[in-house]
């Protein structure tokens, strides 16, 4: 019975769940930027110095904030004048990015990166649920 309740909650709240997940991801990237988490564990070990790390982290944080903004718009949490078709098109692009990232993380050499395939797969699944909803969700 609890499993059914969990599934119902997820199906009824994918935007809220994804927004919470994005907040955690943004916090993670802030921790990398302030060197609480070593950046050599991330980005496939490709970063060579602090400057590269700052560029990657700033871009990542901005992209996650942008995605969060789109989700707030999609869920009618904020007033907007954007076409739902445009919002959905951009969300489909993010969906594709999460699918590609899931595959890249699965084949990564670093175990830490491999673990992120779970996060990207969950993100893609939540976006799928959000995009497959018949009409824009209303928050309560």
In short:
The chain has 140 residues and is an all-alpha fold.
List keywords for this structure.
mainly alpha; 140 residues; 5 helices
Can you lay out the helices and strands and say which pair or pack?
Elements: H1 2-12, H2 14-33, H3 50-74, H4 84-106, H5 111-132
Structural class of the helices, strands and pairings?
mainly alpha
Alpha-carbon distance between the two ends: 24 Å
**What count of helical segments does DSSP give?**
5
Strand content: under 5%
Shape category:
globular
Q: Uncertain runs with pLDDT below 50, 5 residues or more?
A: 136-140
According to DSSP, the number of beta strands is 0
What order do the SSEs take from the amino end to the carboxyl end, as H and E? HHHHH
Notes on the structure:
It is a single chain. The two termini are 24 Å apart. This protein is mostly helical and 140 residues long. Helix 2 (14-33) packs antiparallel against helix 3 (50-74) and helix 2 runs antiparallel to helix 5. The chain is built from five helices and no strands.
